[in-house]
Amino acid sequence: MANIPISVQLYTIRSLTEKDFAAAVKQIAAIGYRYVELAGFGNVKSATACKKALDDAGLKVSGTHIQTDRLADVNQLADEADILDHQQLIIAWLKPELRTAEGFTRLATQMNAAAPILHKRGKELAYHNHDFEFQPIDGRIAFDIFWDKADPNLIKAELDLFWAKRGGVDVPAKSIAMSRRSKAGSTASTPPTARELIATCRASPSARS
Asked: Could you tell me the CA-to-CA distances from 209 to 21, 22, 96, 122, 201 in Å, in that order?
């Protein structure tokens, strides 16, 4: 099985990064992690300052979570990713008022339009789920509404197994079904299979921290 690096999603320690990003990421490095997934820049505010703090801590970026409104300027997103030396840009949240069939369809359309621009800049665009995507809307599961419209060649999935399970999903089956689209978060040259990801998460104590 491939040696799959595991990243810490910094949203989980946002109370620390908002106070002192540099100190927080040094603590993450001291635990033994080598990769982080960003969710904003905490109190450092810019990609350049963020990169310096991460370099000082000896950490690399596997990707970054972004909000939907940032799709309005995809070149700025790509510029920041260049500074931070990563390729994965991941939509992490959909506001409650947009969680309709029309809202999920519109999001897929927006991402389909942004992805080719990012692709030309060497970046990938992905979507990160929570549990609300697995609720029915007018007789269809929101997750399926979105993925039926998202370009299979350009939009990747970052399947959050915890939230999928909480949404009532058969996680191993869904992971395997989505494995061709689940590249976001992988730092390997060849993306791991769904079975490898599940096995790694089961085997790694750090994956539970």
From this structure: 19, 20, 29, 31, 11
Question: Is the distance from CB of 167 to CB of 131 less than 8 angstroms?
Answer: yes
Per-residue pLDDT 10s for the chain (209 aa) are 456 778 999 999 999 999 999 999 999 999 999 999 999 999 998 999 999 999 999 999 999 999 999 999 999 999 999 999 999 999 999 999 999 999 999 999 999 999 999 999 999 999 999 999 999 999 999 999 999 999 999 999 998 988 999 999 888 888 777 877 775 444 444 444 545 544 544 444 343 33
Strands 140-141, 136-137: pairing is antiparallel
d(CA 110, CA 154): 12
pTM: 0.84
122 phi-psi bin (left φ>0, alpha ψ -120 to 50, beta other): left
91, 68 in Cβ contact below 8 A?
yes
Domains, the chain: 7-208 (3.20.20.150)
CB atoms within 10 A of CB 136: 10
